[in-house]
Every structure is written in C-alpha cells, then in structure tokens.
Amino acid sequence: MAARPGMVVLAGVHAVKHALRFGADVVLLVAPDPAAALAVAGAVAPDVLPRLRGAVEAVPAGVAE
Question: Which domain of life is it from (predicted)?
Fold first, then answer.
C-alpha cells in the first residue's frame, strides 16, 4: 500500500497507537483480521481502543504490506 504525498503508512498497532496518542489524523485503518487487531490494541493500548472500534476495515492478507 503506497502512501500519497503528505501521508505516511503506519505499520502495526504500535505505530498506530502512538500516532493516535499524539493527535495524528489517521484516515484509514486496515487489517486482514480486524478482530485480532482490536484484541492486540486492547492488550497494549486500551486508551485508544474506543477510537479503533468500527474504524478498522478488513482487507485480504498481503494488501496492507
């Protein structure tokens, strides 16, 4: 998945959690298994979990790599 000018690709829950904590405007969240991504987020970043619920879209494995 290529970034557009002025945008970056954040890979993984760890990067997304920090971006959200620092006020980034995250415009698209994708994962091959949104439920698994939310489970990881709940374990490592419960403070951002409410912002992720309903926002993570399912994509086929390999699309977001």
Answer: Bacteria
* Distance from C-alpha of 53 to C-alpha of 29, rounded to nearest angstrom: 10
State pLDDT tens for residues 47-56.
Answer: 999 999 999 9
Domain that holds residue 40: 13-58
- Look up residue 46 and give its DSSP letter: T
State in Å, rounded, how far the first CA of the chain is from the last one: 6
pTM: 0.80
Check: CB of residue 19 under 8 Å from CB of residue 8.
no
Token pair for residue 9?
């690709």
Residue 33 lies in a domain: yes
